[in-house]
Amino acid sequence: MPSTGFADEYRLCRETLEGQDFGGALPGLLDLTKALGAEGPELNFYGKVSHFREVALKFKEADKIMEAAGVPATGLVKDEAVKMAASLKMLRHLYLAGARGSQQVWVVSTPSSYAKFASDELLDVKADATKVKAKLADVTEQFSDETKDHLAEAMQLGLSWCESAKVVLGNAASTPASRAIVERWFAASDTAAADIDKTIAALLAGFKKIAFALNHNQVVITDMPMYRSDAKKNTVEAFVRRTDGKFERPRTIYIEKALFENYDISVLHDMKKNWARVLIHECTHTEVGTQDNGYAFRGIGPGAKITADKAATNADSWAFFAADCAGALTDGERLRALGGTGGKLVKLAKNWN
Length: 353
Description:
Low-confidence stretches: none
Structural class: alpha/beta
Number of strands: 9
Number of helices: 13
Oligomer: single chain
Radius of gyration: 22 Å
Order of helices and strands: HHHHEEHHHHHEEEEEEHHHHE
């Protein structure tokens, strides 16, 4: 059955690798099978992944994966060997992009030529081992080293915004300046004080949950290979997926083509801030169950662009509120988020500060 998302591929790889000894082809790396834990990648075994990628596969990478997976040099490849090769291939492209305390940001960066997850790419060519080898030898990844570093920076920035939001919300009941920030993003002119108090309580509980999750759990960032050549997805920045009514585990954020551009229509033209905003936006979906009731480029001012009730559960409202709490927004950025940018889908120079 094809992998429709990263959770499917992760589960396949984990089940395939469990208990394997690789026929002695990877000496000293038996613990590689423990790198994929039940809830996500295991930090304690990442050293084995690094050694596998940087040392064990240093020369004739494809040949070594084929040997460990039991893939013949020519002819038809059995499904079991294909899945083993795909599992090792996924591990080879797994990176710990950032770790601070117990926070872990993982990036899976498969070859940019792939149009599917690795297991399906290899299964498609299993009739010819030489084609399997060619796909295993492809190491030109979708994300550059710089992108991996930027993702870690943006996630740490986003977490700091969430911590600032907790402070502001904790003071909102007694400090007018803090309450004013809440009202800016979540209250219309006719919103009752009691309703604002309820929103403050819900936001505080939500940001505590988000901050706890980001501080104590893994987040995997990858992309959807099936979208790479789909022009209809050119304006997608990021998304998260549900399976069986629940968000994927490991926690997975898919980042797509639009995130790598600086569009005139965007609110934030500092791409570091925009990436942090996007990551928080997606985390509010997975941890708090927010909705996409409105997008900031169209305006999310409560009472003017969306109702206060919709703002209270709107992912972009939560993300921009967090940025505002951290003092990360300029006056112009705040106005564009509340009222809409009026911009066009034109690419501007990229800007990472």
